[in-house]
C-alpha cells in the first residue's frame, strides 16, 4: 500500500517519487503534486508498485550470480527486431518470449551487449558497454546457441552449462569456437563408451554449430545431427525449401 500510494512509483510520471512513500528522502510536497496528477486505478497502482519492488530487488544485487552471470533477465533480439521496434517477439535465456515493445522498455535500464555473427551464425565480435570478463563467452553462446545443442533437446540457455566441444583433456580449447551450451542430462551422455554420444564442430550447411553423433544403438550409421529447436528460422527455411523443391527435400532436417 505504501509503494502503491497515489503519486508513488508512477512510470508515466518522471517526477513521481520511487520506493517507499514514507521514506525520509521522499519530499511530501513533490509527492502531493504527483498524487494530484495521478489518474491510475488502484489496480494499476498496485501493479506499478509490484513492478518497482521487483526492480529494487534486481538492483540490490541480493539475487547473486547464476552460472557465472549476475541473476537478471537476459533478452536476445536481432538488429532487425530492434529497428522494427514493434511487432515480433524477443527471446529470454530461460526460453520465454517477450513483445519487442516490452523488451525495449526494459532496455532503458539494461546493459546492452552486441554480438555480431557471420553469415553462418558464428559469433565474430562481442561489444558491450560494461566489461563482464569471463561472462562474455556465456553471453555469446546464449545468443549463438539459444539453448542445449543436443538434437531435439528443448532445455533453455539459463539451464545449460558451457562445455568443450572437444574434451579439454583431449586438447579442446576455451576459445568461443570450441565451446557450446549443453544441459547436464545431455552432457552426461557424452563419453567414449559404446553407448556414448560424441560432439564435434560442424562444417557443411551449418558450419561452426555443434554436431552430436549418436551411438550405434540410436543410429547404426552414426549420422551427425544438429539441434534446430532454438533456431526456428532454420525450420521455416527448410520447410520453404521443401515446398519449392520437393524432390530436393529428401535431406530431412537432422
Ligand atoms: Zn539437453
TrEMBL record:
<comment type="similarity">
    <text>Belongs to the Rv1128c/1148c/1588c/1702c/1945/3466 family.</text>
</comment>
<dbReference type="Pfam" id="PF01844">
    <property type="entry name" value="HNH"/>
</dbReference>
<dbReference type="GO" id="GO:0008270">
    <property type="term" value="F:zinc ion binding"/>
</dbReference>
<feature type="region of interest" description="Disordered">
    <location>
        <begin position="208"/>
        <end position="229"/>
    </location>
</feature>
<dbReference type="GO" id="GO:0003676">
    <property type="term" value="F:nucleic acid binding"/>
</dbReference>
<protein>
    <submittedName>
        <fullName>DUF222 domain-containing protein</fullName>
    </submittedName>
</protein>
<dbReference type="InterPro" id="IPR003870">
    <property type="entry name" value="DUF222"/>
</dbReference>
<dbReference type="Pfam" id="PF02720">
    <property type="entry name" value="DUF222"/>
</dbReference>
<dbReference type="GO" id="GO:0004519">
    <property type="term" value="F:endonuclease activity"/>
</dbReference>
<feature type="domain" description="HNH nuclease">
    <location>
        <begin position="136"/>
        <end position="188"/>
    </location>
</feature>
<dbReference type="InterPro" id="IPR002711">
    <property type="entry name" value="HNH"/>
</dbReference>
<feature type="region of interest" description="Disordered">
    <location>
        <begin position="1"/>
        <end position="24"/>
    </location>
</feature>
<dbReference type="InterPro" id="IPR003615">
    <property type="entry name" value="HNH_nuc"/>
</dbReference>
